From TrEMBL:
Coiled coil: none annotated. Pfam families: Gpr1_Fun34_YaaH. Residues 1-26 are annotated as: Disordered. Keywords: Membrane, Transmembrane, Transmembrane helix. The chain crosses the membrane at residues 62-85, 91-112, 124-144, 164-181, 188-207, 227-245. It comes from Podospora pseudocomata. Residues 1-13 have a biased composition (Polar residues). It is found in: Membrane. This is Plasma membrane ammonium transporter.
Amino acid sequence: MSTQSEPATSSNGVRVVGDEEKGLHRTQTGVTMSPELFEKLYLTPKVPHVGDNNRRFANPTALGFVGFVISTFTFSIVCMGWGGASGFSPVVGIFFFVGPVLLLFAMVFEWIMGNFFPMMVMGLFAVFWLSFGMLQLPTLQLAAPYATDADPTGLASREYNTVIALYLIVWGFALFTFFIFTCKINAVFATIFLLVSLGAWVLSGAYFRASAGDFDGAGKLQKAGGALLFIVALLGWYMCFIIMAGEMRITLSLPVGDLSHLWPKTDVELAAVEQREHRD
């Protein structure tokens, strides 16, 4: 049971009691959460919401992280060829079930709770795994139009690999755009998006090398991209653990590199932000 300090009065006249758990304050009507703690648990700036869905529903952010991390760990390890691993057909479920199912569930509930940025993140990674997973299904024979007598499958063709390389370049720019906005949340989350952007571009380079017939170079770039994504998965587990520990009320002070204090406060209405900008 938490211990409480002496009551204090906030600037708006509401009596507030400090809670032992960092970032929580009890008022006469309920429990308020500091912007710093909110951003640590939900990975989005605290903004005013209509309704109380954040109190009524469980935090879905960790669920989406679990799907993302398990898929990313598996994908990165296979890319690096640990234990002689090659090909994704045996673990194609990570592209259609483990990752997308949990990410889509999390996305829907982030939307219900009004958490804009996590909703965007969950949706982004869900469609990435679904679309990239299509490339790993040999039964679809997506490379068949590029088949030749020398390459009956078409998987080694210049055109096929170039198309995938361009596709990953586009994904890299999309992920880098998200990285810019994560700089408003915390350093760990920002590093995840920076590295996953670089990973997409490195894997794109692997497909470009394959299109040029340099399969040794392609293999090296694939391992490098896998290594970047492995670090991404480690950081993802770290964030997931912190969120779960916070929700389970386990007292931990693991750093995430809070960046929100570098930006103007967001727990105000948009109209107030607009008025402040006009005054400035």
